[in-house]
């Protein structure tokens, strides 16, 4: 059996650094890359991104909506990209943001986390806003299959602030409660190992304003917001403090805009900046 997801992330961060490249074939980028504005173009875009990322970084994050928009042909293209990425020894995070209750949530988890599934990824993003407990089937499947989950906790979009920073019983923010409930599910990890259930915390989020604090056991933090949204590699330690060594730093447009011919060089240059950040 392969290592648990949390330990795989820990190893990849140490060996290849925190950079995660989003695979986001939105129309403007497809056009700029000179590929067709359809499922075939999305497939080419994704496969070329995988080729450029392989051996350079540890993580890629396909945004599934940009494939779904092309219907069944788009899903078929995404399947090809997922297979290629996992075959290239990249940790693949499906940015699906699924969230539901009961058998419906279980079916979402089965689609993305079951070994051998056409959409198999190493982890997926999930929404806790029907209750973290509604994700228990996904937690259970991920644990059995040595997969991961990233639970939305404190996102960087301004529309989220009022909901995620609302105070519940005891004056605890919603974001902090989500992190606490995810951490409880990580307590079964072996001593000294990272938990496999991570959280999403935007790189531009103020931990103080969101009511967040360092958590244990250590677990991966998926941090969108680097690059085009304003956070820079040099900000990583200042923004995440003692948890900075757990961060997977996600960038999309800032790297993808280099185009197919400049993509590998852009990945190398950006990852070098992250590798210069002192570790804790």
Please specify the SSE layout and strand pairing:
Layout: H1 5-16, E1 19-23, H2 27-33, H3 39-53, E2 59-62, H4 65-68, H5 71-87, E3 91-98, H6 102-113, E4 123-126, H7 136-145, E5 148-154, H8 161-164, H9 174-185, E6 197-201, H10 207-210, E7 221-224, H11 236-240, E8 247-251, H12 253-256, H13 259-275
Parallel strand pairs: 1-2, 1-8, 2-3, 3-4, 4-5, 5-6, 6-7, 7-8
Helix pairs in contact: 3-5, 3-13, 6-7
Word description of this protein:
The structure is a single chain. This protein has 280 residues and is an alpha/beta fold. The chain has a single domain (5-271), classed as TIM Barrel (Alpha-Beta Barrel). It has 13 helices and eight strands. The protein has helices spanning 5-16, 27-33, 39-53, 65-68, 71-87, 102-113, 136-145, 161-164, 174-185, 207-210, 236-240, 253-256, 259-275, and strands spanning 19-23, 59-62, 91-98, 123-126, 148-154, 197-201, 221-224, 247-251. The chain has an eight-stranded parallel β-barrel with strand order 1-2-3-4-5-6-7-8, surrounded by seven helices. Helix 7 links the parallel strand 4 and strand 5. It starts with a helix and ends in a 5-residue tail after the last helix. The mean pLDDT is 94.
The total domain count is: 1
- Give the helix proportion (percent range): 40-55%
Stretches with pLDDT under 50, minimum 5 residues = none
Gyration radius over CA: 18 Å
Summarize model confidence as the mean pLDDT.
94
Q: In this structure, how is the largest beta sheet organized?
A: 8 strands, parallel, barrel
Order of helices and strands: HEHHEHHEHEHEHHEHEHEHH
